[in-house]
Amino acid sequence: MLMQASHPSTSAHVIVIGNEKGGSGKSTVAVHLAVSLLKAGHRVATIDLDCRQQTLTHYINNRSAWRARAGLDLEVPVHHCLELGGSAQLIANDDFECRQLVAAADALEGRFDFVVIDTPGSDSYLARMAHAMADTIISPLNDSLLDLDVLGRFAPSAPGVDGVGHYAGVVRNARRQRRQLDGVDADWIVVRNRLAMLESRNNRTVADRLRELSIELGFVPLDGFVERTVYREYFLRGLTALDPVDEKTIGTKPNATHEAARNEVTGLVERLKLPMDERGRRRASNRAAWFGRSDEPLVLDEILSP
Question: CA-CA 20 to 30 A from 96: which of 58, 209, 246, 290?
C-alpha cells in the first residue's frame, strides 16, 4: 500500500539510513544530513523507525530543548517517531508499526523536499519496507573488517568476494522491488565511519575490500566521519558540526577539531550528490531575510507549508 501511494513527480526525496549492525553512526549521519538540508533551504522531515532505542528522536528532542533554552535559531526538522507495538504477537506488532509508517509517509507526502528515515540496527519487516521506498540508501559502516560481514564475505585464501552478506541481500531485494514498482533505481551509498586519524594497514584493507564489494553489489563507497569525541559531545544539546560553535551554543570556543568535523560533514553531503537545486538555495535566502525582519517566535508551520 505504501509503495503504490508514494513518489509522484512532486513527492519528497526519501533517504533511508540503514545497516543491521548497531553502533555504526546511523543516527549521527541522519541528524547531520537533515540539518545540512535544512540549512540549504529545503523542507525536511525525519522519521525514527527504531521504536526501542529512539536515538534520533532523543537527538532532535535535545536540539529543540536547547534551542528554546539558549534562544538559538537552530534548524529543527519536523519529526515522527513510531510507537512500539505492544502485542504478544510478532505479526500484530509488525502490522501496527508498518501502519504507522504508511500514515507518516502519507502525511508528509508533497509537503517536504526530503524525508530522512533512520532505521534500527537489526532486520525487521519495517526496516525492509523503508528500504523499498527509498530514493537514496545510505549505509554507515564502521571502518572494520568485522563490520564488512553485513555486506559480503571473503575467503581467507582466495581473492574476490566469496558471498553476499545478509544486509546486502536485503538492500538488493529492496532496490529490485522499487525498480519493478515504478522504474526508479535507488542509489546506494556505503559510508565508512569512525575512521582512524592515522592511516593503517586495516584502513587500506577495508578500503580495498569495500571497492571489491561495490563492484559486486552496485554501491558507491565514500569516506564518512573520523572517530572524534566532539560528535558525542554534540548529542546532549542536539547540536551538529554544522552549527555555530561558541560559548553560547556548546560552552566552549571553537578549535581545530570542530572545524575538521564541519569539513567532514559538508564534504560528505557534497559527495552524496542529492538533488539540492537552486530552488533550495533561494528558499534559504528568503528564510534568512524573514528571520532578520521578524521579532516574533518562529512558527514552524508557516515556514514548512508548501
Answer: 58
CA–CA separation, 26 and 16 (whole Å): 10
- CA 252 to chain centroid: 27
Tens of pLDDT, residues 32-42 = 999 999 999 99
Q: What is the mean pLDDT of residues 193-203?
A: 80
**Residue 222 burial (CB count, 10 A):** 15
Secondary structure letter of residue 248 according to DSSP: T
The x, y and z cell numbers of residue 123, run together, are 532486520
Burial of 266 (0-12, 13-18, 19+ CB in 10 A): middle
Give the residue among 167, 184, 163, 166 at the shortest CA–CA distance from 175.
184
Q: Read off the pLDDT of residues 94-111 as tens digits, 9 standing for 90 and up.
A: 888 889 998 898 888 889
Domain boundaries, the chain: 2-304
Residues 6+ apart with CB under 8 A from 44: 34, 37, 38, 77, 78, 112, 113, 114, 115, 116
Q: Which DSSP symbol is given to 147? A: G
pTM: 0.84
Angstrom distance (rounded) from CA 15 to CA 173: 17
**81: pLDDT confidence band, cut at 50, 70 and 90?**
very high
More confident residue, 162 or 131: 131
Residues with Cβ within 8 Å of residue 262, at least 6 apart in sequence: 241, 242
